Amino acid sequence: MFNGKIIIHINTSSELRGGERQTKYLAEGLEKRGWRNYIIVRPKNQLQDFIDIPPDRFLEIPMSSELDISSGWRIGRMADNFGAKIIHCHTAHAHSMGLLAKFFSKSKPKVIITRRVDFLPQSGFFSKWKYRQADHTIAISSRIEDILKKSGVDPQKISLAPSGVRFELNEKKEDKIKQEIGIPANCRVIGTIAALADHKDYPTLINAFKIIIDKYPNTILLMLGEGGERKRIEKLIADLSLQDRTRLLGFRNDAPRFFNIFDIYVQSSKLEGLCSSLIEAMYHRLPIAASAAGGIPDLIEHEINGLLVEPQNPEKLAVAIIRLIEDKELAEKLGESAHEKSLKFTDDKMVEGTEAVYLKILNSE
């Protein structure tokens, strides 16, 4: 039987996005449950000031590539020295590092992978090897679970443990926030919080907004997030002459405040693992229009707690948003139902579900 509670997390990201927030919630939650967490990060990372665990538990290792033998050897030795029973890998490159660490480790800790994206793993030998060699894979949505099974991962080595959110219910300060960013107090606000990344499919949202603005000009679109698609998105906004009705606000540490000024929340992704910002919008009772992509249908049931449309269809997305604008009774009903559903996706439930996977794997030894 398992009697040790020491774990190594590997996260190779240099940015703070959804996966890093889940790493934070998990490590902090496990600490409260009596686990000792060590987090392997790259130099110049942002996680050390983001996760509330003792500073000496963060260990900087280059992890310069998926086949960084030296880094893998160092992590393996750390696992032995710390007495870690589990290495939990939170990013794609971390998967390789975890397996290399196990190879070099004398104690052979269990390697657990979290899969957060809803497309098939690469078909090459190395990618298939990574998933088959892992002791267990956690899928954050039923869509990802299905994809893993289709890609050949043993169903007995897959568990579903959805992402969770640490909810912050902020006091209403609508006028102040709107004033800060130059929005008239009586202006309708459509909002989204998502990285400026291809899979978030901002072009579909912006083209849908063009349809909406022609009918409801007293409306503005707020987009919070940063990423490599910024120039492409800015060009599309300019091409559609929407500069005066849109705001690209970049990454905001105070993003939860904006749920208080959104009248409607939109998620237009064409690929999506689960989407924690969507869960936050649900918690804040916002009427939601979203694409039926990836794990989003795990959260939103059409006409029960939101409106779902097919991905990459601006016209249908615009129709859904206009319906929420015009039918206030429906919008309120969907928002209340969304709030109730959101309570199933807390950070505590995510930690509980992940810990259950750990104990299952360790107790099967």
Write the layout of secondary structure elements.
Layout: E1 6-10, H1 18-32, E2 36-41, E3 58-60, H2 69-82, E4 86-89, H3 92-104, E5 110-115, H4 125-133, E6 136-139, H5 142-150, E7 158-160, H6 174-181, E8 188-193, H7 202-215, E9 219-224, H8 230-239, E10 246-250, E11 264-267, H9 276-283, E12 288-291, H10 296-299, E13 307-309, H11 314-326, H12 328-342, H13 347-363
Helix pairs in contact: 1-13, 2-3, 7-11, 9-12
Molecular structure report:
Helix content is 41%, strand content 16%. Strands 3-2-1-4-5-6-7 form a seven-stranded parallel β-sheet, sandwiched between helices. The protein has a six-stranded parallel β-sheet with strand order 10-9-8-11-12-13, sandwiched between helices. It contains 13 helices and 13 strands. The longest helix has 17 residues, at 347-363. The protein is elongated. With 365 residues, it is α/β, with parallel strands linked by helices.
Shape: elongated
Q: Would you identify the CATH architecture of the largest domain?
A: 3-Layer(aba) Sandwich
Q: How can the largest sheet be summarized?
A: 7 strands, parallel
Strand order of the largest sheet: 3-2-1-4-5-6-7
Strand content: 15-25%
Please give the CATH class of the largest domain. Alpha Beta
What is the average of the pLDDT values?
Answer: 93
The CATH homology group name of the largest domain: Glycogen Phosphorylase B
How helical, in percent, are the residues?
40-55%
SSE order in H/E notation?
EHEEHEHEHEHEHEHEHEEHEHEHHH
- SS summary, helix count: 13
CATH fold node name of the largest domain: Rossmann fold
